Amino acid sequence: MSEKWVEHIKTGLLIALVLASFLLTGLLWLNQPGEKRSYNPLDAYTINPIYDEKYNDRKIYQLAAPNQMIVHRKGAHYWLLPEEAGYEQLLRSMQSMSVSDIEKIGKVSPDTWRNMFTRFTGVELYFPDDVSLEYADIFFQESLSQHYSISHLSSVSRIWFFSNPEKKQNYVWFISDQDQQIIQAKTDIDLENLLSKMKHPLSPSLEAVPATGKAPWDPANQDEPFPRMFYLPAQPVSLSEKTYPLEDISADAMIDWLFKDPEVRPIPINKNEDLYMYDEQMMTVNKSNRFMVYSEAVEESPGEIQPVEQRLSAVNNFVQRPHGWTGNYLLDQVEDKENAFSEFTFRLYMNGYPVYWKDRNFIHPDEIKLQTNPVENAVNVNKYERSLFYLTGEPQQKQAALPDKETLIKQMSRQNLSLSNVKRIHPGYQAVTTNQQVRLTPVWVVKTTSGQQVWISSP
């Protein structure tokens, strides 16, 4: 046989081997676990039209807004909660305020405290916890950190706007319980005018309760440190127990938005979990408890941490892209970690009240967590964990109530909790899941100075 024909035969065999290789690869691909799906971008465009319109076009100051306002009018005190109309009106005005004549206040006299609590019209802003000045800066259009007096506060416990009728001037106090300092500034907010246009808050009348039991307006306590204040009702608060249906976000919808290749297919880890991988991207989905953890492999090299406002903006854009704000989520905590990594935790609010799942073994709809890291003077979101359930529809309602001040304090005492060791008390919901539904029970959320969190319901 001529050398020419030998070369032709070799070439033919090589082509046959290549074709056989392609055929075997195709057969293996078709027989891998998981079903090949067709990609329809409309399926992932929106999770729920109601939530999409309401929560996926928000600015970062709305995410970082206080979770509670206390309105002071004519000696009475009221809650003003997220989702009330007046809350949003005040939020916009306070966010765009300007300040001047900033000064550190010395010892506040009992007469001034009495005026603040009984005479002056005012609004106190409360965040879920004491916050850094950088955190508080997110909320305001004008940077607070640029002002020397304010920049020295190690933390901000509450921000109190008030109108002084004698001086015909509006002021704002930045109060640090930790530093025992108050920074005062004049502000251009016309508080009396704003509140006169608002509907009366829906909350009952509240009593101001000092954590130490020593009222700052009592002359006998003028040499005492000013205490943390709690606002509690003298009578039980009527608040319905609500049961909502749980809707499910498909894993495919999240993959379509998050992955560079929307055709990535599941690799079963066990009967309850699937793993999705593409290049540096990875996502695990718990099928029985319906939650996901998405992450990207990043180099944990030291980097310069970006301003918290820039990090929060990157997080907001990341969640908005797949229309992931499936409810009213507010920033609950920012935790800075090693190598300039940061973790952001957002909490769900229903009817203005924060939601806390009773079972902490899995990821539930009450929290959404994201992690960021710096990349070339920008911010990268490298981790995203959330439930694939969300609350929707009209709830079933059952009459319930929150305990009054005296009952609450007695129940706290039974759990060895003293007001002097408490940092925050506010109303909320405790959630329990049963049969594709979630029951929200009204509770008092008690946060201690040691970081413990306790829920107290009606006895």
From TrEMBL:
<dbReference type="Pfam" id="PF07435">
    <property type="entry name" value="YycH"/>
</dbReference>
<dbReference type="InterPro" id="IPR009996">
    <property type="entry name" value="YycH"/>
</dbReference>
<protein>
    <recommendedName>
        <fullName>Regulatory protein YycH domain-containing protein</fullName>
    </recommendedName>
</protein>
<feature type="domain" description="Regulatory protein YycH">
    <location>
        <begin position="7"/>
        <end position="448"/>
    </location>
</feature>
<dbReference type="InterPro" id="IPR042274">
    <property type="entry name" value="YycH/YycI_2"/>
</dbReference>
<feature type="transmembrane region" description="Helical">
    <location>
        <begin position="12"/>
        <end position="30"/>
    </location>
</feature>
<keyword id="KW-0812">Transmembrane</keyword>
<keyword id="KW-0472">Membrane</keyword>
<keyword id="KW-1133">Transmembrane helix</keyword>
